[in-house]
Amino acid sequence: MRVMSQIQAPSPSAWVPVDAAGLPEVQAAIERIGSEGTIQVAAVGQTRLLGLHKIAVFSSRQCPPDRMLLAFDWVRALPESGTALVGGFHSPIEQECLAIALRRRLPVIVCVGRSFSRMRPATEWRLAVDHGRMLILSTFSPKVRRLTEERSVERNQFAAALADEAFFVHAQRGGHTECLRDLAVSWGRTLKEHI
């Protein structure tokens, strides 16, 4: 049982977004999606995580149970160092993959579909940032406070462009995740569809 006094409050300075658009990995992702000069990227957390091997995880909302179990086993088998899990972590499967990664204390890069303005991150996120295991990136201006379908697509494209390879748990035929998978292939991303 964990004693509450062991949990430290995150330092307030850790939640001041910094400009990350000039970082080489971020710049390469921006160029890949063809948005040079139009995207400003803000970051909270450990930008050094960008130097790790990055694997993005994506899934349609509806997913066959056998693929869900494979995805959860896959996250549990990720190496504890040298690899960062990347994504928007919006669909239920993606959220559970994030939860498993956080419980395992794996490095995680979260691409959010809104700005940091008035954001209230979960305690788990704050602790992960404070302990150097999480980087949160936003490609949206401070005026953008709500996630929309269009912003979700943009967020996922940025996450896929940032990653070295991508695992598509399930891509619904004709859906946004299938389009994202096709885009990732066009960028030369290594896909992990069958694990």
Could you write a compact summary of the structure shown?
The chain has 195 residues and is of the alpha/beta class.
Write the layout of secondary structure elements.
Blueprint (H helix, E strand, L loop, with lengths): L17 E2 L4 H9 L9 E4 L7 E7 L5 H13 L5 E5 L4 H12 L4 E5 L10 H8 L3 E5 L10 H14 L2 E6 L5 H11 L3 E2 L4
Parallel strand pairs: 3-4, 3-7, 4-5, 5-6, 7-8
Antiparallel strand pairs: 1-2, 2-6
What does this molecule look like?
Helix content is 34%, strand content 18%. The protein has six helices and eight strands.
CATH class: Alpha Beta
Number of helices: 6
CATH architecture: 3-Layer(aba) Sandwich
Could you name the CATH topology? Rossmann fold
User: What amount of the residues lies in strands?
Assistant: 15-25%
Overall number of strands = 8
Radius of gyration: 16 Å
The outline comes out as globular
**Uncertain stretches:** 1-13
The largest β sheet comes out as: 8 strands, mixed
Tally of individual domains: 1
Gap between N and C termini: 34 Å
In round numbers, the mean pLDDT is 84
Class from secondary-structure proportions: alpha/beta
**Helix content, binned percent:** 25-40%
Strand order in space, largest sheet: 1-2-6-5-4-3-7-8
N to C succession of SSEs: EHEEHEHEHEHEHE
